[in-house]
Amino acid sequence: MAFADIECESQDGVHFLLSGPAASTSALVFVHGWACEGSDYRYLTHELRERDFNSRIVAVDLPGHGKTPKECCSHPTMSAFAEKISALVNELALERTIVVGHSMGCRIAVETCSKINESSGNAICSGVVFLDGSHYSLRPGRLAFERGDPLHDNRSPEQIDALKEKVFKNMFGDRTPSEFKRTALEHVKAMDSEYSSAIRDAFIEYDYHSWDEALASLGSSGTPLLNFQSNDVDASNQRIQLQAGQVSKWMVHLGQKAPQVKHFVVEDSGHFPHVDQPKKVSEVLLDFMKAIDKIMNIAG
Q1: In whole angstroms, what is the distance from residue 27 CA to residue 128 CA?
Q2: What range(s) does the AB hydrolase-1 domain occupy (predicted)?
Q3: Fewer beta carbons below 10 Å: N end or C end of the chain?
Q4: In order of start, what are the domains of the chain with their CATH numbers?
């Protein structure tokens, strides 16, 4: 089934891409990572559209990213971003959602799922998907451009921007399309520096103070969870690609907090498995959705 993205804006100013059958009340809600944007999912959503896919697709631009202004969320936190997405789900009158998060977006996906299920609307979150998630407590240290790095305060804004670009380039793999590399780097440069740093601070703080509790709550709820993992972090804080059969510290940690998780290692991919291996990710994602449908039909 072929269908095109429609550019939309929520009542409180959040930009998002919407596609799929208008009559459908089920949706995949995509949440991007730090300094990314909703259109990053275009490679994956294209694959989904080529298959037997009858749900709606919602790809959000978080505040300060893409076409969503920072002004719609003056104090950026993982919870505040999730509140915006939960409100959008209710605004669209969706009844069943699976929330997909990439990188930083994994935190927001879990928070969004919780807020959807706690809201007074008709929507339920029936599943969560992670794309190359992580936990900062498992890293050997901060990245060079982050405020917690010992040399951060001695660097100029230009040096910080150059370090951000270097980190992003290291996230790309051999299969990353050149067009995506270009748009991703352009987006990083275009972001408000102070706001993007505030978001970065918020998600690192979340990891140390809230991430474990949120994961444990997801685990105790039994909500179906699929984890796509393409990278690990080595002793020098550099990303390395995983091979089938390998298990990262994050995968072990996640399994301890949420035992229901299903892991899938995406080989030959950088930090963006939905960009580098969209066909493989779409196949596994659709199988996950079908399994949830069976559970929901039995429960219903």
Answers
A1: 12
A2: 28-283
A3: C
A4: 6-140+197-299 (3.40.50.1820)
The angle subtended at Cα 269 by Cα 101 and Cα 233, nearest 5°, is: 75
Residue 7 corresponds to which tokens in the numbers above?
A: 């550019």
User: One digit per residue, pLDDT tens: the chain, 300 residues?
Assistant: 446 799 999 999 999 999 999 999 999 999 999 999 999 999 999 999 998 788 999 999 999 999 999 999 999 999 999 999 999 999 999 999 999 999 999 999 999 999 999 987 789 999 999 999 999 999 877 665 556 655 455 567 777 778 888 888 999 999 999 999 999 999 999 999 899 989 999 999 999 999 999 999 999 999 999 999 999 999 888 899 999 999 999 999 999 999 999 999 999 999 999 999 999 999 999 999 999 998 777 655
Q: Are 58 and 7 in contact (CB under 8 A)?
A: no
CA–CA gap between residue 225 and residue 14 (Å, rounded): 26
List, in order, residues 6 or more apart from 163 with CB less than 8 Å away. 143, 144, 145, 155
